[in-house]
Amino acid sequence: MKPVTLKVNGRPVDANAGSDGYAHLKRKWRKGDVVTLDLPMPVNSVYAHEKIEPDKGKVSLMRGPIVYCLEAVDNTGVDFSKLQLPRESALKASHRPNLLRGVTVLQGEGISDGKEVDITAVPYYAWANREKGAMTVWVNEAASVSTSTAEEITGNAPTKVFILAGQSNMEGQGVVSMDHPQHYNGGKGNLVWSMKNSASAEKMKHLKNEKGHWVVRDDVQISFKARGEVRKGGLTIGYTGYGGSTHIGPELQFGHVIGDYFEEPVLLIKTAWGGKSLYVDFRPPSSGGKVGPYYKKMIEEIYAALAELKYDNYELASFVWMQGWNDMCTKPAIPEYADNLVNLAKDIRKEFNAPNLPFIVGELGNGGPVKKPGSMADFRKAQRKGAARIKNAVFVETAGFARPKELSPNTGHGHHWFGNAESYFLVGDALAREAIKLIERESLPNVRRDIAAKMDLAWKPLTSSGFSCVRVPTASGGQTLPVDERLTCD
Predict the structure, then answer these.
(1) Distance CA 148, CA 19 (A)
(2) What is the pLDDT of residues 375-407, one digit of tens each?
(3) Which of 44, 153, 322, 392 is deepest in the core (most CB within 10 A)?
(4) Which residues pair with 237 in a beta bridge?
(5) Domains of the chain by range and CATH?
(6) Are 177 and 187 in contact (CB under 8 A)?
(7) Is 458 exposed, middle or buried (0-12, 13-18, 19+ CB in 10 A)?
(8) The pTM is what?
(9) From CA 410, how far away is CA 187, in angstroms rounded?
(10) Of the candidates 166, 416, 380, which has an alpha carbon nearest to the alpha carbon of residue 282?
């Protein structure tokens, strides 16, 4: 636990309490002096006195000096009289700036009727400010439940959650089938046309089934809020800002690649708005100044989608960022972009308590490779530079996926890849494959690195094939072994 610290005008002073329980500060005070007291805020289980019969076998929660309670509005379908909190339950604190004017909630797992349930607790002082419903401070205590036991109870493997965020090109502007001769260039470059005529036609075959219908994947779910309504369901065409089934974004092929890779269920949370900059609209807290309103909305939408899942039955797998046009068009934004990108990754990871969350940055590849100096060239350099400063991140080049306007449906929309469906397909494909590489590098090798350390083995981080190996010392000079029997090494 971190110690109590006391500072006056930024300088540490003695924080030890006297015999009366108070810390005494004696000095000549001046107008404008600032006293800062930093108290540790651990999450603790609190028990009633043994003689209080109604509370025997029960536990309450505190974070620092703050008492918490459970309200029905946060714990839908949970009968508090049957709820049990495992003694060793891991409770996580996270601040919600837009809940009850800003509170820190506690979340963890409980057991009700033999099944795992997610629970959320709020500060006691803040209850009864929303809907009518039950509230409790004291919860029955139970023996701890391991992750494996919880999976046996629920019958579900943890859902892999991928967050896809950005502006209009993440929203999705790839035309599916519209082919008006004047408005959509006769359909050239739309998805239907691309599945027959583009260089990626063979790779796109999986998008339709044997009956010629668009495939809907049950193992890959998607949640996207557009026009004030959340659309949820199996991955297929149409999860864009337009509604219906007229357009696609990177999410379509991204979801297919990720779904084919993982055996576990997958959830894509898409949160995007057109015409928004990282400089202002998505501005992260660590960048200083006013926090961007769409940064706040993005966080809200992610939490809302996660609330549909069991708390300890999902895993944040990656954050994918596809954005930049408005920053590229704003001269003061370009010099700041690398710093703002670093701060975005920092704040997202802090918000969701995921310090090593893979962070994927898609290049603003509109228009193809840049041949002349200018804002686009400077902005792409800023994207690359920012991504390089983020641990466990990757910059994904996309300029090579641009297609000429003559072979695209929206010939006047260069900022939207001319609406070319193949471009959006290939962007999603590249983002997914780079995400998988980061996940492989961050998960399997980490486990093997621990084993290697115990066995005094030399660690070879990555081979050219993207896999990792350990080299076992032997009399003959060593033998290279794969990190997993399913993988091979160079």
Answers:
(1) 49
(2) 999 999 999 999 999 999 999 999 999 999 999
(3) 322
(4) none
(5) 1-40 (no CATH), 43-154 (no CATH), 159-442 (3.40.50.1110), 447-482 (no CATH)
(6) yes
(7) exposed
(8) 0.63
(9) 9
(10) 166
